[in-house]
Design goal:
By secondary structure, the chain is α/β, with parallel strands linked by helices. It has two domains: 170 residues, 3-Layer(aba) Sandwich (Peroxisomal Thiolase, Chain A, domain 1); 138 residues, Thiolase/Chalcone synthase (Peroxisomal Thiolase, Chain A, domain 1), CATH 3.40.47. Helices cover 31% and strands 26% of the residues. Strands 1, 4, 5, 6, 7, 10, 11 and 12 form an eight-stranded mixed β-sheet that branches. Strands 2-3 form a two-stranded antiparallel ribbon. A hairpin with a 7-residue loop joins strand 8 and strand 9. Helix 3 packs across helix 4 and helix 6 packs parallel to helix 7.
Length: 314
């Protein structure tokens, strides 16, 4: 279903100040810096120091609101997306509502689809705006995986911390089409897992195998729903699991690697926040123009995955 009359009207992002290089991490683990760069496409990432997950979400949200020219008092819904919250309750969304100092009641929910969470939030929100139920929705994805993975665990090389946000609003010509999917047979120690107590764990090969299988299928499905081909896409903004995965997926669906927005060399994999951070980076650099067709795609633990095509017209 095509959700009409909806657009991204503003974006923002926030990255912690501490830059952690491959060389920094390899002091404590058995891995070579060049291997990380060659196989994952990562040179550095950001880790929080004294900041919380909500702090990152707040800073990204403030920038997105400013860039959208939407007052915080005009928000109809807040969705905070995270798979690495500071706590279970109160939710990140509730704390963010308080931190934004909004003077009215605004429904605020937290969503966890792991790395695909942002696309899920975009899909649900675009439906709400297209229906006329809401006018302005803030979606912010914030992750702090560095708090959940020991720097002596080899898995720390994959992830970084950060937050990205968008404000969705009404539009005359903008539209969005999504394709969401999930299969709980991947629940448990398949791919990657973060328990409430204990260390994060991951089976990298399973992530690889699942990603290069379901992401091309999802992209072809959403393009069919949008009545488009891969040649109609102006920019592909994916979740950032590894550069080699992105190359394989792009080639499989017929999208030139030149059209793939990559930020993992600077920030690594920031789970659900990767896509909104990459989107904000693309907007700031003028890589997305009015009328461009944007493709999003991501896969998360469990497994959950999805893709979206956006006609970017405000």
């Amino acid at each position: 279903m095509r959700n009409k009359n909806v657009a991204i009207i503003g974006s923002g992002s926030y990255l912690p100040k501490d830059i952690i290089t491959n060389e920094d991490l390899c002091k404590n683990i058995k891995c070579k810096p060049q291997w990380i760069k060659s196989n994952l496409g990562i040179s550095e990432r950001r880790f929080v120091d004294n900041e919380t997950n909500v702090d990152l979400a707040y800073n990204a949200s403030v920038e997105a609101l400013k860039n959208s020219n939407v007052s915080k008092e005009d928000l109809d819904l807040i969705i905070a997306v995270t798979s690495s919250p500071d706590q279970m309750s109160p939710t990140t969304a509730s704390i963010l509502h308080n931190k934004l100092d909004i003077n009215k009641n605004v429904p605020s929910i937290e969503m966890n689809g792991v790395c695909s969470g942002f696309i899920y939030a975009m899909s649900f929100s675009s439906t709400l705006i297209a229906s006329g139920q809401y006018k302005n929705i803030l979606i912010v994805a914030s992750e702090t995986y560095s708090k959940h993975i020991s720097k002596e665990n080899r898995n720390c090389i994959f992830f970084g911390d950060g937050a990205g946000a968008v404000v969705l609003g009404q539009s005359k010509n903008g539209w969005m089409v999504s394709d969401l999917s999930s299969n709980g047979k991947g629940t448990g120690m398949s791919g990657f897992r973060m328990p409430l107590v204990g260390d994060f764990d991951m089976i990298g090969r399973e992530v690889w195998d699942k990603a290069i299988t379901v992401l091309p299928e999802s992209i072809r499905s959403v393009l069919k729903k949008a009545n488009m081909t891969s040649g109609d896409i102006d920019i592909f903004v994916p979740h950032q699991p590894s550069l080699n995965i992105l190359k394989i997926v792009a080639e499989d669906v017929g999208i030139s690697i030149d059209k793939v927005k990559v930020i993992m060399h600077k920030y690594a994999n920031i789970a659900s926040a990767s896509i909104p951070i990459a989107l904000d980076d693309a907007f700031k650099k003028g890589e997305i123009k009015e009328g461009d067709k944007i493709l999003l795609s991501a896969i998360g633990s469990g497994w959950s995955w999805g893709s979206m095509v956006i006609n970017h017209e405000k």
